[in-house]
Design brief:
By secondary structure, the chain is low in regular secondary structure. It has one helix and no strands.
């Protein structure tokens, strides 16, 4: 079958093209909404800017197929072979891609919002700027993937593999990353407001200038992490490990750092107004220029901390161990 015959059959009302052979066919701008191409051979075909909403591509062979800027909303690509396919700018909103193969595929600028990508292998893929809002990425392989600037707010990443992932500038508001291993991860300028990172391993990760208001980081390991100028207002950091972390110029106002480990941390010019540091450990921490206005430091240990230029206005220091080793009454 060739492209002309297909379009004539479609115009006549035929929608079932199961197993059809359209290798190399030119269907640019074609309107094939609702067609059934399950198991079809579409290698090298061109569907650029085609209308393919609600199309069934289950098990279809789409090797090197051009789907650039195609409309594929609510389409079914279950087990489809998209190896080396061109999906640049395609709209796959609410589509199903479970079991699809993407090896070598071009997927920059793709809209995969609310798509089902459970178990999909994106290992090493360039997903920068991709829209994955509210997508199902449970069990997906994202190892070594570049998700810089990607929109992942509301996405389900449960069980996903994320070793050596790049997330700089990514949108992760409200995402559940609790318990994930993000050691050394690039998250600079990422949007993580309201995200759940409790118990996560963020050792030596780069979170500079990240927006993390109301983020949950209880018991998280942030040892030697770069949090320079991070926005952590009202963040939950109780018993977090922030030893040797760089928190200079960070906004930690109203944050909960109860029992946190801040030994050797850099808190120069950080804002800790109205924060809770109750029982926190700040041995040899640098607090030069730090704002501790109305901060709760009950029982905190500030032994050998550098407190040059600290604003202690209305700070609560009951039972705190001061830099010289004395206990404040």
């Amino acid at each position: 079958m060739n492209a002309k015959e297909l379009l004539e059959l479609y115009a006549a009302g035929n929608r079932n093209f199961t197993g059809v052979n359209l290798i190399g066919a030119d269907l640019t701008h074609a309107n094939l909404t609702g067609a059934n191409f399950s198991g079809a051979f579409l290698t090298g075909a061109c569907f650029s800017r085609a209308f393919l909403n609600n199309v069934n591509f289950t098990g279809a062979f789409l090797y090197r197929t051009d789907l650039s800027f195609a409309k594929l909303q609510n389409s079914n690509l279950l087990q489809a072979d998209l190896t080396k396919a061109n999906l640049k700018g395609a709209n796959l909103l609410k589509s199903c891609l479970v079991g699809a193969k993407f090896s070598g595929a071009i997927i920059t600028g793709v809209n995969l919002a609310a798509a089902n990508l459970s178990g999909v292998n994106f290992c090493g893929s360039d997903l920068s700027g991709i829209n994955l809002r509210n997508a199902n990425l449970s069990g997906a392989n994202l190892n070594w993937a570049n998700l810089s600037g990607a929109r992942l707010s509301g996405a389900d990443l449960s069980g996903a593999l994320i070793n050596n992932i790049k997330l700089s500038g990514a949108w992760l508001n409200g995402v559940d990353l609790s318990g994930f291993n993000l050691e050394g991860c690039s998250l600079e300028e990422a949007k993580l407001s309201g995200a759940n990172l409790s118990g996560a391993n963020l050792t030596a990760s780069n979170l500079s200038h990240a927006a993390m208001r109301f983020a949950i980081l209880n018991h998280a390991n942030l040892r030697a992490a770069n949090l320079n100028s991070a926005q952590l207002r009202k963040a939950a950091l109780s018993e977090a490990n922030l030893s040797k972390a760089d928190l200079s110029d960070a906004d930690l106002s109203e944050a909960d750092l109860t029992g946190a480990n801040l030994n050797l941390a850099n808190l120069q010019n950080a804002d800790l107004s109205d924060a809770s540091l109750r029982g926190a450990y700040l041995w040899k921490a640098s607090l030069d220029g730090c704002k501790l206005y109305r901060c709760n430091l009950i029982g905190a240990s500030l032994r050998h901390a550098d407190t040059t230029g600290v604003d202690w206005s209305e700070a609560i220091l009951t039972d705190a161990t001061m830099p010289d080793g004395t206990i404040n009454n």
